[in-house]
Specification:
By secondary structure, this protein is an alpha+beta fold. Helices cover about 30% and strands about 25% of the residues.
């Protein structure tokens, strides 16, 4: 019997469209002999839909197509089954059910632990990181603080709240300038380079900060590595076992790898909707050199730090870890970890002989193993500490409650 895999994607995120691309790629590569693939799409309005039409990227050209050909559903657990039920109508018909969830989501409100928390709370097995790794991996400030504690090398940085900048922009600018130009400004919880700007002077810095605070409540400013090589590596596994992929050098046209560098690629005319033209290959379309031209000792350093960071965050499944290499001083700095990377970084595994279908299979198997480990732990006790409470009531407070 095939395993029913619910691929969840979309969501209320500025990376909504990127998630669609990654998910459609993956669904087209999953082994149909092993898995029944059930797409579950979350709209920007947080409505959930399922239907075969969601496997075709052309469906997303017009939301009316989604509403016409797909079912608006909710996912819940009943008697150990994970059901997709019609949300609307008098009769709440069961549309389908899934055995395992495979989130392929990017950005705020989905990749950051919100979705993982829901899946974990209803008890469904799922692929990828748990709530804790998702939260830390999505928040650049939390991430840096964990890396600092683990003595993983990072570039000098400061961070602040949007309210602090709005109340006293001059003070924030002065703190940022202590890093010395050029600096890079980033919203703390966004991905795909959304809201990121490089500043070479005070005027550019003010513009970058004004832009960043429109996206997030916490902002990071980092010192730019000027003699820079950007390299990425993927790690597959969980806290017990890890494999590392080939290392790529990314070659952006700008000061950093922008959203356009990552996703505006080589889509063929007529193959995808106009709103997604050029993005059909996702991160696989970005300019890159594989393997990266690194000396052996630098390659080993990147691999070692990547595994250290993966374990520090208790990551699982496939992640991509981005590095900044100072070519002049031969220093390696970790930039960030992407817990659900664009295109699931399949292109970094191909050079090692692991095709996309095999990678997805490995991720699903790891998700099942993680689930078995999770349910084997003690999460509650049989004792009822409420037994003997005679009254807990409304405006009268807790009359008759026993004191401990």
């Amino acid at each position: 019997m095939k395993i029913k895999v619910g691929v969840i994607f979309g969501g209320e995120s500025v990376e909504h469209e990127v998630s669609i691309i990654s998910a459609v790629q993956a669904m087209n590569k999953m082994d149909g002999e092993k898995y029944e693939i059930i797409p579950i799409y979350i709209t920007k309005e947080r409505e959930w839909y399922t239907g075969e039409a969601l496997k075709d990227i052309e469906t997303f050209q017009d939301m009316d197509l989604v509403k016409r050909y797909c079912k608006n559903i909710v996912l819940y657990e009943k008697n150990g089954r994970f059901l997709l039920q019609n949300k609307k109508g008098i009769f709440k018909k069961i549309v389908n059910e899934i055995d395992l969830a495979f989130p392929i989501v990017h950005g705020t409100n989905v990749e950051d632990g919100v979705l993982q928390g829901y899946l974990q709370s209803i008890g469904i097995p799922f692929v990828g990181v748990d709530v804790y790794a998702a939260v830390v991996g999505q928040d650049k400030i939390f991430m840096k603080q964990v890396f600092e504690q683990e003595q993983i090398p990072i570039v000098p940085y400061i961070w602040f709240y949007d309210s602090e900048y709005q109340e006293n922009p001059e003070e924030i600018i002065k703190k940022a300038e202590k890093l010395k130009y050029p600096v890079i400004v980033k919203p703390s919880t966004l991905g795909s380079s959304v809201g990121i700007s490089v500043a070479h002077n005070r005027e550019e810095l003010a513009d970058a900060l004004d832009s960043a605070v429109t996206y997030d409540s916490r902002i990071v400013v980092e010192k730019v590595v000027e003699d820079l090589m950007e390299v990425n590596i993927s790690v597959l596994g969980n806290y017990e076992h890890q494999q590392v992929s080939a290392i790529e050098e990314v070659t952006p046209k700008n000061d950093f790898l922008t959203y356009a560098d990552k996703y505006i690629g080589n889509g063929k005319k007529g193959k995808i909707p106009s709103k997604y033209k050029g993005v059909s290959k996702g991160m696989a379309s970005a300019s890159r050199i594989i393997p990266a031209p690194l000396e052996d000792n630098m390659k080993e350093k990147v691999e070692s730090i990547a595994v250290q960071a993966f374990k520090a965050l208790k990551s699982s499944g496939v992640v991509r870890i981005d590095f900044l290499v100072d070519k002049k001083n031969k220093n390696v700095y970790i930039n960030e970890i992407n817990n659900i990377p664009g295109s699931l970084s399949f292109y970094l595994w191909s050079p090692l002989g692991k095709d996309y279908s095999e990678l997805l299979d490995d991720m699903i198997n790891i998700g099942i193993k993680d689930y078995k480990k999770r349910v084997a732990k003690v999460h509650s006790f049989d004792s009822n500490i409420l037994k003997g409470f005679s009254e807990i009531g409304g405006s009268k407070g807790m009359k008759g409650v026993k004191k401990f």
